[in-house]
Amino acid sequence: MEPENPDYTAQLAYPVTPVRVRGDLDPALSRWMWLVKWLLAIPHYIVLFFLHIAYFVLTVVAFFVILFTGKYPRAMFDFNVGVMRWTWRVEFYALSVLGTDKYPPFSLAPNAEYPADLEVDYPERLHRGLVLIKWWLLVIPHGLILGALFGGGATLVMQSDDNWASWATVPLIFFLLLVALIALLFTARYPQGLYDFVVGINRWSIRVQAYATLMRDEYPPFRLDQGAREPETR
Questions:
Q1: I want to staple 138 with a disulfide (CB 3.0 to 4.6 A). Which of 14, 134, 152, 226 is the partner?
Q2: DSSP for residue 130
Q3: What's the distance, CA 140 to chain centroid?
Q4: Pairing outcome for strands 165-171 and 153-159
């Protein structure tokens, strides 16, 4: 009997996810440019505001098309993936990773030259009944975890002169980025382990977004796949 192929077995046990997120760390990040990148990205925020309105409308339309036909119209799918891709590049540049100083392109298309990109495999068929519950009920467990990662953190309590207290929750992702930026400021290096963790959080969020907005039927894994690139096998 021939020995089992370990690579083949691994692929069966850990299939490659249909949602793939890439974020390559810029090895020559500026010590100070992170102070202004959020400001430089304002033109992107304006465009993305309108793109996300279109994204929402097309997702609603896709809901009914999938419900009756089991298919996600390809043109709408490609557009919405493009919006996700554009958003990820801006987040990678200026908001939730700060992993590059290279200004994001104003484009929905994939770009192998830019440090951040994503792909979502087009599904030939989607489950018609699943569309009724996956966008809200089935994503609740993921929402709780991601809420802790993005919304959880330290609670700051402030006492006023009138003897009443106010508080605000500072997201965990903010603290992670703060530590990274302090290290960048003094060492000119983004700590690799911290970077991998931050990208992993964003990757998890993007996978859940693709599922919740009806792009795939495969349930997102409860897994923090860290690092710049997707593992080749799962």
A1: 134
A2: G
A3: 17
A4: antiparallel
